[in-house]
Amino acid sequence: MRLTDEQETAAAAVEDQWLAAALETAPADRAAAEAGVRSAYRQAGLPEPERVFWLGSPRAGAVAAALLGGAAPEGPDWIFRLRDSLALSGSRSSASSEARGSVAAPGWVSVRRQVRTEPWAAARERAAGVLGPEGWAQLGAAAGRRSWGLVMDRVAGRLRLRLGEDLLAELPGGLGRAARSRLLDAIYGQHDGVWLSTFEAADKLRPGAGLMDGLGGLAAVARHCGWWWAGSRWAILTERPSRLARDNVGRLHRGEGPAMEFPDGYALWAWRGMPIPTELAAELPSLTAERIGAESNAELRRVMLEHFGYDRYLREAGARAMHQDETGTLWFLALPGDEPLVMVEVVNATPEPDGTSRVYWLRVPPTTRTAREGVAWTFGLTADEYHPLVQT
C-alpha cells in the first residue's frame, strides 16, 4: 500500500504526541508506569516482578542493577545509601563501614530481550506484513524519522555516552565496569516513544489488525517515566529529567548550567550537542585566551572557543591579518593539535538604526588565502564568481 497525504498527516500527529512525551520533564506517574511494567511482563509471558524500585536518574538505575547483580558497593557514600535503600528481599543491611560488603541475595538477570526486543521484532513483522514493505517504510518516515533524530541522536545517545564515561570515572573499577555494562540492558522509557509512534500510527491506520499487540505495556511505561531495567525478579524504574535545555536545532545546550538534570542531582553539561566534563563547565564563565590555548583536546577547545567568542580569541591570542580587500579582512591563528583558525572580518553593508555598522566574523576553511575567497565560500561560490551587484 501507499499512504495518502491525509494518512501521512495523521501519522505525523501521532509522532508529535510521542515526541512531547519523549522530551517531558514532569515527575513520573509512578502508579501508571508500574502498571505498564506489570503489563509488559505479562505480555512477554513472564511473571510480574517481585519488586519495583524507583530511582532518581539513569545513573542510579545502572548502579542499582549492578548492585542487584551482586557487585560490591564501592566508592562514594551515595552508593552505600543506594544499596541500603534497595532493601533486597527485606534483608536490609547496615551502611556502617564494618558492614560494607557485597549486596545480599544477588539475583539480577536481565529480561530485556523478552520484554522489549522480541515484542518489537514480532510487532514489526506483523506491521510489515499488513502494510507491505513500501507502506511500512513510508509510515516509518512519516511517524518516526524526525523524532528519532531529535531524541535518540541528540538526547538519548548523548546521555548514554556521557553516562558510560561518568560511571567509569566516578566509581572504583569493579562497580564502575559492572554499572556501565548494565547500560546495555536499559530500556529507554520515554525515549522509546520514537519507535512506538510508528506502531501506534500503524495501529490507527489498520484498526483491528493487532499492530500494537504486545507493546501496550511498553507504551504505558514510555508515557509515564524515564529509563528502566527489566530483571527476572525485580524491575528498576527511574525518573524523567527535571530539566532539558536544547538549542534551536534540538541539540543539548546550555552555557550557564547543566543541559540535563535529574531529581537525584545527576546532571549532564553540554554545549551545542557535545557533552562536556563538569570541570570544564565550571571554567566556562572565567575562560582566558591562555587557558584555551593550553587545552590539548581539540574538541573541548572548540567548545571553549564558541563560548569565549572566536573574534575575542583572535584579538587576545595575537592572530595575524593575512589579507585585506574591499570585502573584509582575513585573519589567521595556528592552533596546536588542530587545524588553524581562519576567519574573515566583514562589516555589514546595511547600517544599524543608530548609524553604526555591525561587524561579523565568519569562520572559513584553513586553506583560504584571501578575504574575497573566504566571503565567497560562505555563499558556495569561488572568488572569481563572487561579484555582488547589491549588498543588503
Helix tally equals: 14
Q: In what order do the strands lie side by side in the largest sheet?
A: 4-5-6-7
Low-confidence stretches: 88-105
Structural class: alpha+beta
Total count of strands = 11
> Average pLDDT value?
88
Q: Which range does the strand content fall in?
A: 5-15%
- The CA-CA distance between the termini, in Å, is 49 Å
Assign a percent range to the helix content: 40-55%
| Bulk shape | flat
- Rg over alpha carbons: 26 Å
Largest sheet: 4 strands, antiparallel
Number of domains: 2
N to C succession of SSEs: HHEHHHHHHHEEEEEEHHHHEEEEH
Topology (elements, then pairings):
Elements: H1 5-22, H2 30-43, E1 51-55, H3 58-68, H4 77-86, H5 112-143, H6 145-170, H7 173-182, H8 193-205, H9 216-224, E2 228-230, E3 234-238, E4 243-244, E5 260-261, E6 267-271, E7 274-276, H10 278-283, H11 289-294, H12 298-308, H13 310-317, E8 320-325, E9 328-333, E10 341-347, E11 359-363, H14 371-378
Parallel strand pairs: 1-3
Antiparallel strand pairs: 2-3, 4-5, 5-6, 6-7, 8-9, 9-10, 10-11
Helix pairs in contact: 1-5, 1-8, 2-9, 3-4, 3-7, 5-8, 6-7
Describe this structure as you would to a colleague:
- This protein has a 4-stranded antiparallel sheet with strand order 4-5-6-7. It has a 4-stranded antiparallel sheet with strand order 8-9-10-11, sandwiched between helices.
- The chain has 2 domains: 5-242, no CATH class; 317-378, no CATH class.
- Helix content is 46%, strand content 12%.
- It has 14 helices and 11 strands.
- The protein has helices at 5-22, 30-43, 58-68, 77-86, 112-143, 145-170, 173-182, 193-205, 216-224, 278-283, 289-294, 298-308, 310-317, 371-378; strands at residues 51-55, 228-230, 234-238, 243-244, 260-261, 267-271, 274-276, 320-325, 328-333, 341-347, 359-363.
- Helix 1 (5-22) packs across helix 5, helix 3 (58-68) crosses helix 4 (77-86) and helix 6 runs antiparallel to helix 7 (173-182).
- A hairpin with a 2-residue loop joins strand 6 (267-271) and strand 7.
- By secondary structure, the chain is an alpha+beta fold.
- The chain starts with a helix and ends in a 14-residue tail after the last helix.
- Residues 88-105 have low confidence and may be disordered.
